[in-house]
Specification:
The chain is α+β, with helices and mostly antiparallel strands and 263 residues long. It has three domains: 63 residues, no CATH class; 147 residues, no CATH class; 46 residues, no CATH class. 30% of the residues lie in helices and 13% in strands. It contains six helices and seven strands. The protein has a three-stranded antiparallel β-sheet, with no helix packed on it. Strands 1-2 form a two-stranded antiparallel ribbon. A hairpin with a 7-residue loop joins strand 6 and strand 7. Helix 2 packs antiparallel against helix 6. It is extended.
Length: 263
């Protein structure tokens, strides 16, 4: 990677047995030598020693040409040091919220259209309601309940007015039931351009375009892999016997050095 010097490898060379710094032979070598029969000449094990190369190897450091790191001021001039976390969040995820609202309403409408004489349709979910739904979902992680409906319970030991004040229980359950971020109609699998990840295609493209538009990564990048447990039938799933789930999907992620400020 640019900016990182490569570690110098150790070279393994043979050394005399009398050397005090040599590595002892393995137990398996000693056992093999001890199994020689009477009259047979016992072969002494060869010891090895790790040494550094006589001439250090030089690493190539490439010049970083990615421009100034951090937020692109020409694309988001309204974001500055005085901007709050919500403003930064909306900069990257506003289109995701819109996508959730559109596809959730579409999925619910398709469900209602399947009934000849079904219940009265609920009003469409708005972006404001979707924001409240996400806020409540995040807040639930700070106070775990046994059941989802316990967050709206009126019992003295469970009562938390925050949830009922922000959104009615039935409205929250309605959004949770029909929450979608893609059209449920599957594209033609016989098409040569068929994408096996079509369900996350729109979400992936929005995130890629948004981060590329508003943010420049730094010259210090770290590449790592992430193992996601999955039992779905996908072509890129691999068998990992050392993991408890035995089957998982491997993804690569990039970590960049972030500034404490947005400038």
């Amino acid at each position: 990677m640019p900016g990182l010097s490569q570690p110098q490898p150790y070279h393994k060379t043979a050394s005399c047995r009398e050397s005090s710094s040599s590595i002892s032979s393995s137990a398996s070598d000693e056992e093999d030598a001890g199994e020689s029969g009477p009259g047979e000449q016992t072969q002494q094990p060869v010891t090895l020693q790790w040494t550094r190369p006589s001439c250090p190897q030089s690493s190539v450091v490439h010049t970083y040409t990615g421009g100034p790191r951090g937020k692109k001021d020409n694309e988001a001039s309204h974001i500055n040091d005085r901007s709050g976390p919500l403003s930064v969040f909306l900069l990257y995820f506003a289109k995701i919220i819109t996508l959730l609202v559109v596809e959730t309403n579409r999925y619910y409408q398709d469900y209602i259209d399947g009934f000849d004489d079904g219940p009265s349709p609920e009003p469409d979910v708005t972006e404001a309601e979707m924001f409240v739904f996400l806020v409540l979902t995040i807040q639930m992680g700070h106070g775990v309940r046994d059941k989802l409906t316990d967050y709206w319970s009126t019992l003295d030991q469970l009562y938390t007015p925050f949830y009922g004040t922000m959104m009615k229980r039935d409205q929250y359950l309605h959004i949770l039931r029909y929450l979608h971020y893609t059209d449920k109609n599957e594209p033609d699998r016989t098409d040569k351009k068929f994408d096996r990840l079509w369900k996350i295609g729109d979400l992936f493209e929005i995130l890629n375009a948004t981060f590329s538009k508003f943010y420049n990564p730094s010259d210090n990048l770290a590449i790592d892999k992430v193992i996601v447990s999955s039992k779905r039938r996908v072509i890129f799933k691999q068998y990992t016997p050392k993991n408890a789930s035995n089957s998982a999907s491997k993804f690569s992620n990039f970590v960049t050095q972030l500034d404490t400020r947005m400038t």
